[in-house]
Amino acid sequence: MKQIVILSGKGGTGKTSITAAFAHLGTTYGIFPPAVFVDADVDAANLSLVLQPGILDPKEFWGGSLAVINPDQCVNCGACSPVCRYDAIFPDPQKAQVQWIDPIACDGCAACVYACPEGAISMVPQQEGNWFQSNTSFGSLFHAELFPGKENSGKLVTLIKQQARLFAEDTQSQYVVIDGPPGIGCPVISACAGTDLGLIVTEPSLAGLHDLKRVLETLRHFRVPVVICINKADIYPEGTRAIREFAISESIDLIGEIPYDENLPRAMIEGKPITLLFPDSPAARAVRDVWQKTIQLLQPQEDHYGSSSS
Ligand code: SF4
Ligand code: SF4
């Protein structure tokens, strides 16, 4: 079983449209059992808008813990407030003579628990979101929602990736395809770890090349082989030329150039993969090429001695 992560370094490059097309192409070209998909953008999941899942199995995600003062035990000695580096401890606005912890400001470090001589402070686990295993017309999708203002998005990405991998092993799926989050933070690191191929979707602009370089560093840190595809490749030829030259200089395969095609956003608005809705459009044809090359790259390779490696 192989894991592919699709990344862009920032939002808006067409990464999710390409992932959705991969989901459709996997079933169209008879990959069986179907690939398992992961929407790793847990802060703003949108792959589900295109794959239109029927949720089978919602589960709670419990992240870190926050400190809570038991007002019946607090003697207002003031020992806890100075140890809190996050300025989260105040006199209780509801109850005179006891202290109170602001749950928004608390970072869950537990320093106050050890400082309290009365044992009045305890750490209480927090539900930070939900995660789902869903059915789609194109196979199973693992996705999640992190509640607003909650952290631990990297932990949630790791959790849904693990669940997707276990499910793929149980169902003997050959591929787990991960629609990565934008940026280069914790959730991206979690999305990259342990994958077999990183496909970076970029666009021809100075910012696109800059973001490509940043996300490339993350993938290389995890020794993940990388390929690149340029979306809207014809809108700024100079930018496309710069990305081609960068790819050559870094010995990275440029496996596709997708032309600007208004059918791509139209398909997203309709909530369907472009390869399903506009199969003969220029972008759909180019995405099909990228899919076929991606799958070829994941096949076992013949080595110099004639044996195959997986
Ligand atoms: S757990 Fe840490 S951050 Fe939260 S109130 Fe206690 S000392 Fe402050
Ligand atoms: S250290 Fe404990 S007893 Fe003292 S003010 Fe804080 S919560 Fe209350």
Can you tell me about this structure?
Helix 1 crosses helix 10 and helix 4 (153-171) runs parallel beside helix 5. Strand 12 and strand 13 (308-309) form a beta hairpin. By secondary structure, this protein is an alpha/beta fold. The radius of gyration is 23 Å and the shape is elongated. It has 2 domains: 2-52 and 137-299, Rossmann fold (3-Layer(aba) Sandwich), CATH 3.40.50; 63-127, Alpha-Beta Plaits. A 9-stranded mixed sheet has the order 3-6-7-2-8-1-9-10-11, with helices on both faces. A two-stranded antiparallel sheet has the order 4-5. Strands 12-13 form a two-stranded antiparallel sheet. It is built from 10 helices and 13 strands. Helix content is 35%, strand content 27%. The termini are close together. One iron/sulfur cluster (SF4) binds next to loops.
List the helices and strands and how they pair.
Blueprint: E1 2-7, H1 15-28, E2 36-39, H2 47-51, E3 54-69, E4 89-91, E5 99-101, H3 111-115, E6 121-136, E7 139-146, H4 153-171, E8 175-179, H5 186-192, E9 197-202, H6 206-221, E10 226-231, H7 237-249, E11 253-258, H8 263-270, H9 274-277, H10 282-297, E12 301-302, E13 308-309
Parallel strand pairs: 1-8, 1-9, 2-7, 2-8, 9-10, 10-11
Antiparallel strand pairs: 3-6, 4-5, 6-7, 12-13
Helix pairs in contact: 1-10, 4-5
